[in-house]
Amino acid sequence: MSSLPAQQQGLMSYSNHSSPSSFILTGIPGLEDAQFWIAFPFCTVYFMAVLGNITLLLVIRIDLSLHLPMFYFLSMLAAIDLVLTTSTMPKLLSIFWFHSHEINFEGCVAQMFFIHSFSMVESGVLLTMAFDRYLAICKPLRYSTILTGPTIAKLGLTAAVRGIAIATPATCMVANLSYCGPRVIHHSYCEHMSVVKLACGDTRPNSIYGITVATVVVGSDSILIAVSYMLILREVVGLSSREARLKSFGTCSSHIGVILLFYTPGLFSFYTQRWGRSIPVHVHILMADLYLLVPPMLNPLIYGMRTKAIRERVLSMLWQKGNKPTPSLMPGGKE
Fold first, then answer.
1. How far apart are CA 168 and CA 113, in angstroms?
2. Measured between alpha carbons, how far is 80 from 299 in angstroms, rounded to an integer?
3. Strand 199-200 versus strand 178-179 pairing type
4. Cα dihedral sign for 311, 312, 317, 323?
5. How many CA atoms lie within 13 Å of 271's alpha carbon, on the beta-carbon side?
6. Burial of 128 by CB count in 10 Å (0-12 exposed, 13-18 middle, 19+ buried)?
7. Among 10, 239, 294, 309, which has the minimal tally of Cβ within 10 Å of its Cβ?
């Protein structure tokens, strides 16, 4: 870890420069000595997230019986999670294992754009998935007529355009700020306000914009998702079959759990960055890291493997692979 202070001192010696060539990411402040070991569970979860989401995409792509609205939305979620984890985890692991703390300015801005834009896109997709479940359970007779192919494409495109449109102004404002003094970001990745804190001059527009987006957009999405599941649960309570009620409650509770895991750490990290001075920095950074790591790992399990059609398809593929005949036992083969 001895390379970090030297790098910090070198970057701190520059001042009154409006365009920094690079920043230094510290990782998890206060846990520098433990970062090497923390990287192992992080790497394991990252591997599981990548494997799970790629598997989900391949299964839905191959199996024509899964070409349905719910699975199209799952595909969108899996693709977004791959982008979110891959835009942060490789650099984070290189910091923890190889002390590669430096990141160039353009790379930092690009990473920030991908993190915040695709987080907004994921929020929009989670909202469309809640709408999908509401229609499937509460309006089953109208489900196929409402969620047609063009409608699904429009919902996905709307979520993508909204996320990019929200993140672009924040990214442009950060790129146009003047930076002077220390270039050390006390974070594991280039989070918006962590970068803004290094700027000189008036940064109030950045803070106001960030707070407004987090409160209005994420708040409205989470409220609409909550309303959707409340309506679903009300419908489920009226089911005559006890088994159907228990199954529906189990599905809804797991979905709600994943949604809470997505929104809670994200909002916690966002607001503590501004007002959580009493919260230890390492707790804040760990929560921010887990926000980009745990939901992408759990989404394929909760939304995918708990879905009977996907689970059966994955198990059948594994069974066929495990029982594939060897060449010597195939017709015409020689023992």
1. 7
2. 11
3. antiparallel
4. positive
5. 10
6. buried
7. 10
What is the predicted pLDDT for the residue at 156? 96
Helices (H), the chain: 3-12, 35-62, 69-86, 89-98, 105-138, 143-146, 149-175, 192-196, 204-212, 219-237, 242-275, 281-291, 294-299, 308-322
Gap between the Cα atoms of 85 and 297, Å rounded: 9
Distance of CA 93 to the CA centre of its chain: 17
Pair 215, 166: CB distance under 8 Å: no
Q: What does DSSP assign to residue 45? A: H
The answer to whether the pTM exceeds 0.90 is no
- Paired with 288 in beta bridges are none
CA-CA distance, 110 to 217, in Å (whole number)? 22
C-alpha span between 84 and 118 (Å, rounded): 7
| Among the listed residues 172, 6, 119, 143, the one whose alpha carbon sits nearest the alpha carbon of residue 68 | 143
Condensed to tens digits (0 to 9), the pLDDT of residues 47-59 reads 999 999 999 999 9
Residue 333 backbone dihedrals phi, psi, to 5 degrees: -80, 160
What is the DSSP pairing of strand 184-185 with strand 22-25? parallel
β pairing state of 178-179 and 102-104: unpaired
